[in-house]
Amino acid sequence: MLLPTGRTPGIHNVSRTLRVSVATAAAALAVTATLAGCGSDDKTSTESSTTSAASTSAAAAAPAPTADTLQGLLTAFADPAKPAADKAKLVVDGDKRISNIETMNQGLANYQVGFQVGEIKTEGTKADAKVGVTSPHGTMPDVPMTFAYTDGSWKLSDAGACTILGMARAACQP
């Protein structure tokens, strides 16, 4: 029950005391957090700062991929006329998927596959995209695909390649 302040002597003092206590606690918490954030003198702190700075520089150097860039990459990967060795270069560590890619090429010989890259979220050297995959059997909307910026270009991640290879009945083995 709220009492009118005019009839309750001392209520202002309780309220002011409560506000001062809350403010004091907040200030103490802020000081504690600031002190905890200060670095230590051990080497791991310096090493992690250096590693973090290097990661930030590498991430800043990666240009954000466009939908056209990623769509072109996917189209080239699914092109049955393109040799497996060339396609392997479009995938991170693609050399380990050459036999899968050869199987996919045989399966796609007379089969039309298209891609429509939608929403792209980029974080450093990694990009996640929602991709619509179109085939003679219909369209699969919002298939998640992951890409990585490596060796100066955007490539399909191994997981992304395995998604497409699985659709082409050339599934990756762990």
| Main structural class | alpha+beta
CA-CA gap between termini: 66 Å
Low-confidence regions: 1-59
Mean pLDDT score: 76
Number of strands: 4
Plain-language structure description:
- The structure is a single chain.
- With 174 residues, the protein is of the alpha+beta class.
- The chain is 48% helix and 21% strand.
Write the topology of this structure.
Blueprint: H1 11-37, H2 43-61, H3 67-78, H4 84-88, H5 98-107, E1 114-123, E2 126-135, E3 138-150, E4 153-156, H6 158-167
Antiparallel strand pairs: 1-2, 2-3, 3-4
Brief rundown of the structure:
The N and C termini lie far apart (about 65 Å). The radius of gyration is 28 Å and the shape is globular.
Quickly list its features.
174 residues; alpha+beta; 4-stranded antiparallel beta sheet; 6 helices; 4 strands; 48% helix; globular; disordered N terminus
